[in-house]
Amino acid sequence: MYPKQKRLLVSLGERLRLARLRRQLSIEIVCERAAISRMTLYRAEAGSPAIALGTLLRLLSVLALEADLDAVARDDKLGRLLQDQRLAPRRRSATAGRAGTGESGEGESQP
Measuring CA to CA, which residue among 72, 20, 4, 14 is closest to residue 47? Predict the structure, then answer.
């Protein structure tokens, strides 16, 4: 795992721990509601990369933060930019031929 990725996980774990503490939820209550062991909670709050996404979702749900997961990659700016770059030339080339010849392409047949 790259250092930047590890820092992101550690930061996420810390935010989970802080969310639990702000809600004044004990370790026991969170573990019971999320159906996980204490060790799993400790690992999640430490930012372990071994925590399953389903476990993370259950933890977020217990903390009433599951909507945060729904926001992940919702606004994929890079993906949309890349997609637009691939699509743009096709659109231009299809209309450029008509624009240059003065043909509208509607109802006309080519010889």
Answer: 14
Structural domains of the chain, ranges and CATH numbers in brackets: 3-70 (1.10.260.40)
Per residue in 11-23, pLDDT tens? 999 999 999 999 9
Q: What DSSP state is assigned to residue 74?
A: S
How far is Cα 55 from Cα 38, in angstroms, rounded to an integer?
A: 12
Please say if the pLDDT value at position 91 is more than 80: no
What percent of the chain is modeled with pLDDT above 90? 61
Q: Are 65 and 44 in contact (CB under 8 A)?
A: no
Q: How many CB atoms lie within 10 A of CB 73?
A: 8
Mean pLDDT, all residues of the chain = 86
Helices (H) and strands (E) in the chain, counts: 6, 0
